[in-house]
Amino acid sequence: MEAQIKNYYGIIKRILIIILALNWSCALAKIIYGLLTKCASMTADGFHSLSDGASNIIGLVGISFACQPKDYDHPYGHKKYETLFSMAIAVILFAVCFGLVKQGIQRIINPIIPNITIESFIIMLITLTINIFVMNYEYRNGRKFNSDILIADSMHTKADIFTSISVIISLIVIRLGFNIIDPIVTFIIAVFIGYTALQIIKNSSKILCDTAAILDVKRISDIVLGVNGVKTCHKIRTRGRPDDINIDLHVQVNPNMHVDTAHKISYAIEEAIKKEIPQASDVIVHIEPQEKG
Questions:
Q1: Fewer beta carbons within 10 angstroms: which end of the chain, N or C?
Q2: pLDDT per residue as tens digits for the range 161-210
């Protein structure tokens, strides 16, 4: 089991390292050229891409904690560290959002005319193509491996795609002589980033606050009622990450049943649920005597 966990997180680490290299390549290209041409929106987009790289590093740190095996202090494992560190990505996004709003205000107070060239469009189109690849690659693997870090980071990159498109539009408008569009687009980028941060917090907090897992309760009930000796099933509760679901439930059995037989039924229920729902890592069964009448 521990070997599977290490292999699982080893794959996620490799994905994050690949994404980190791509994100920082895009970031440096946009920041350097944005500063040279005095284009605030392109520079802002570059810093957004730079924050993508920072979130990759946070993801790597979070994975290092999450991959640790169960121990005395963490009998349920360390997987929620991955969810916790995805919240840190949201914090970085809020910080970037605040910085961009501040920069946009300064550009309105002290206007600077950007120098837009054909190279500006080429750089933005190349980095946009890379971002689209990164987002699809990361989101696809996030769903495949049920990784909160990869999914949160792909949402970050998705915002980067929208902001890059906004920058390209602003470059066209600035080229036509409407320089005021530069700080306005910077504000739009800040809104995209802030919205993405809120979505990450919303999704991660559901897991950290033990919101019910996305499972069909009737499906669980049907599995349990299919076990020989079970009369009724009720009070089904679920929580946890999509790949680490905890389930507890109550079942009623014949009141005259021997405790040893009832104990075997509880084990049979646990095995049946884990067989049908592989994401279930822990199943607690409360045995009750069936009410007469």
A1: C
A2: 777 777 777 777 777 777 677 677 778 878 877 887 888 888 888 888 88
Q: How far apart are CA 51 and CA 226, in angstroms?
A: 51
CA 194 from centroid of its chain's CA atoms:
15
Q: Is 78 helix (H, G, I), strand (E, B) or coil?
A: coil
pLDDT for residue 248: 93
Neighbours of 199 (CB within 10 A): 17
Q: Check whether 129 has a pLDDT greater than 80.
A: yes
Residue 63: pLDDT band (50, 70, 90) is: confident
95, 155, 267 from 72: Cα distances, Å: 36, 35, 24
Structure tokens given for 260:
């040893």
Q: Which residue has the tokens 């910085």?
A: 99
DSSP element (H, E) containing 88: helix 80-109
- The kind and range of the H/E element at 33 are helix 2-37
What mean pLDDT value characterizes the chain? 81
* Element holding 275 (H helix, E strand): helix 259-276
Torsion of CA 32, 36, 40, 42, to 10 degrees: -50
Full-model pTM: 0.66
